Amino acid sequence: MLIEQTGLAQLLVLTPRFHRDERGFFTESFNSRAFAEATGADVQFVQDNHSRSSRGVLRGLHYQLPPHAQGKLVRVVSGEIFDVAVDLRADSPTFGRWFGTVLSAEKGNQLWIPAGFAHGFLTLSETADVLYKATDYYAPDCERTLAWNDPAIAIDWPLGVEPLLSAKDSAAPFLAQADTFPASPGALYLTRPYLPPLHELMPLLGEIWDSRILTNQGPFHQRFERELCEQLEVENVSLVANGMLALSAAIEAAGVGGEVITTPYSFVATTHAVRLGRLEPVFVDIRRSDLNIDPDLIEAAITPRTSAIVAVHCYGNPCDVEAIDAIATRHGLKVIYDAAHAFGVRRHGRCVCAQGDFAALSFHATKSFNTFEGGAVVAASEAGKRAVDSFRNFGIAGEVSIPLVGTNAKMSEFNAALGVLQLRHFEEVRGARRRVDSLYRDALAGIGGIECLAIPEGVEPNFSYFPIFVTPDFPISRDGLYERLKAEGVYARRYFYPLLSSLPMYGGLPSAAPANLPVATAAAEQILCLPIFPDLSDSDVDRVLSVIRRSARGAG
Questions:
Q1: What is the pLDDT of residue 176?
Q2: What b-and-e string marks burial along 513-551, b requiring 16 or more CB atoms within 10 Å of the CB?
Q3: Most-buried pick from 264, 367, 370, 536 (CB within 10 A)?
Q4: Three-state secondary structure of 74-113
Q5: Half-sphere exposure of 109 (CA within 13 A, CB side)
Q6: Has 272 been annotated as catalytic?
Q7: Mean pLDDT of 189-196
Q8: Averaged over 241-250, what is the pLDDT?
Q9: Is 137 one of the catalytic residues?
């Protein structure tokens, strides 16, 4: 197939190959795979139209607006026409410009007109039969016309006499008065925080204004801690200002020193909290099945200096807590879980946040449960909670007693009030995220080279993230797909790349050698997290999937 650029983005002249002999010719006038490869368009044709016109008939310019905008593939099966398309995409650099070409049965050339263009033609032969395939059905409410002779567009029609027009086309408006196609969708980011209805927040804000208590474990702070205990089915919760402070507080309260065994595959806050706690991270590889620390490799990394295991429930997938706890018990180690991704996740009916000596939660705006900023520590014991509470309040034990070094990690009353309100909506948010997760899984199941991270058996996720592996079987690399998505305004993220073990402050550690971390190294090169949030529309999911499908076919 010969492909001719027109100077207007995505508008193409296509000429199939003809096989001619004394008997006539044969041509494959349409092949969906060849069309997709030639145009990069991820479309499905749903309607075929056929018009017959005599010399001098001018049809158009016609188009349909969203939600029933049509792409058209136009060809002539007898005679010839002068075929025209006008760019009506409001955000296009060629808005208002036109392209025209002669289509004929003899040449067999076709014009691909994507949605966003007006289309019309002038019959040049005694008669012409025009066939065109459309990507959406005829929708009278969305149909619009544009004047064929608008001087602002100035189409150079090859006219010999005055054209023959329909009454509708004769009355068509000029471009300045016509409806055009709205700007293309804006940027689509990895996540967008859920916010409750503002009218539900205002009474709680009024209570804060009336009390004038803004921080220091006020009424909403206490209420939020109680309600979190009920939500998570735990005894001891301590609120803090953010997720990294939660992990720092847990490390401090655990009273550990020396080395801690941890994962190289996480957000940088994990190892930064370890290093700020004056500890040395020792990296252990992960499992491909869930991207969590591999318990089978932990014991080999234990030394006399090892005091704790800091494991991450990556993307909310629970670690093998039984195996990790058994190792910790045998060796007298503390277990601290970075549960920043795992709010509300249950495994065999039990909340993941109830595992280990401490679990650190994040309520950052990007998480499935947010308080704008915030975090919490779940402690297995009352003594652990007291230690966290002291650390978050400068180490203060009483009005005149400050026995420990601490910091200011307290959550404000506003964040706590928002948390109380967000708890009412959490299951609704989980359900909305589950819908998006299902759409992705169903659509990606048959695409070679794309693998979705499985949901472990017995786990009720929170659907915080949607990670995929872009394997070597896919036509382009992970980074290639990342760039293609970004070029179309879809901002996926390579969570987690680069590995923590490759960062300059950790790369010199013996445990950081890539040879020690083959699974994590491979995962970091293949992983890509797709946008997921509660109000992500089906059309936006399709927008993401369209780029992946086109890339899977080798089309740009």
A1: 94
A2: eeebbebbbebbbbbbbbbbbbebeeebbebbbbbbbbb
A3: 264
A4: EEEEECEEEEEEEECECCCCCCCCEEEEEEECCCCCEEEE
A5: 17
A6: no
A7: 96
A8: 98
A9: no
